Amino acid sequence: MNDSQRLEDYVLDHIEPEGEYLHRLWRATNIHLLAGRMASGHLQGRLLKMLVQMIRPQHILEIGTFSGYSAICMAEGLEAGGKVYTFEIDDELEDFTRPWIENSPVAERIAFFIGDAITEAPKLGILFDMVFLDGDKRTYIQAYEMALQVTRPGGFILADNTLWDGHVVDSAYDGDAQTRGILAFNDHVSSDQRVEQVILPLRDGLTLIRKL
Predict the structure, then answer these.
(1) How confident is the model at residue 182 (pLDDT cuts 50, 70, 90)?
(2) pTM of the model as a whole
(3) Element (H, E) at 150
């Protein structure tokens, strides 16, 4: 075990426990789905819950449900009446994800949709307090621009994977479409005068964006 792994284990031992349901979901995600590491996991999940408790949103939009782990974590932090509206574009994930969401302790706080959030989320007619952007990296800018339109002034957009496993500073990955999408997104947000932002080097990179 290297120093990085020991440090990660230490952190996980000193934060809120993951919880039995989420732990089973994490294991099932990694056993049954390709790229299971895409799920938020224990540390990021606890951060998402706490950010929700700090921001106290009533309406959260999630772009990219995957296995439902992050949606459940955010729903755990909601106050009474709050709701997570989560969109997954890959309909092949529905048979796995929907039962995990609908059988979770916070099922009533989550509305799960199969479809493209870029076109479908605005149709809800909701002004969101918080958005979690975790979909296709090739369309991050389009998703971000949509999210800005449906986020209230002072609301937050959280963008996941913005360091892309370090590929953002590795020229060997410049030709990869997903990496190009992240690089373009980071440049776009850093020059956007409509927001203020900070990148946290947590896991795969998490950018916190506040709409002015």
Answers:
(1) very high
(2) 0.96
(3) none
Tokens describing residue 31: 């056993």
Cα 185 versus chain centre, distance: 15
Q: What are phi and psi of 27, to 5 degrees?
A: -65, -45
Tell me the chain's radius of gyration from C-alpha atoms.
Answer: 16
What is the spatial distance between Cα 102 and Cα 111, in angstroms, rounded to a whole number? 9
The tokens for 66 are 């995957």
CA 63, 69, 71, 77 dihedral sign is negative
Digit-coded pLDDT (tens) for 64-106:
999 999 999 999 999 999 999 999 999 999 999 999 999 999 9
Give me the pLDDT at residue 165, please.
Answer: 83
Mapped onto helix, strand or coil, the DSSP state of residue 205 is coil
Q: Which two tokens stand for residue 116?
A: 């493209």
Q: How far is CA 153 from CA 10, 69, 129, 173, 212, in A?
A: 38, 27, 8, 36, 6
- Classify 17 in phi/psi space as left (phi over 0), alpha (psi -120 to 50) or beta: beta
In sequence order, the 6+-apart residues with CB closer than 8 A to the CB of 190 are 197
Nearest-CA neighbor of 112 among 77, 64, 58?
Answer: 64
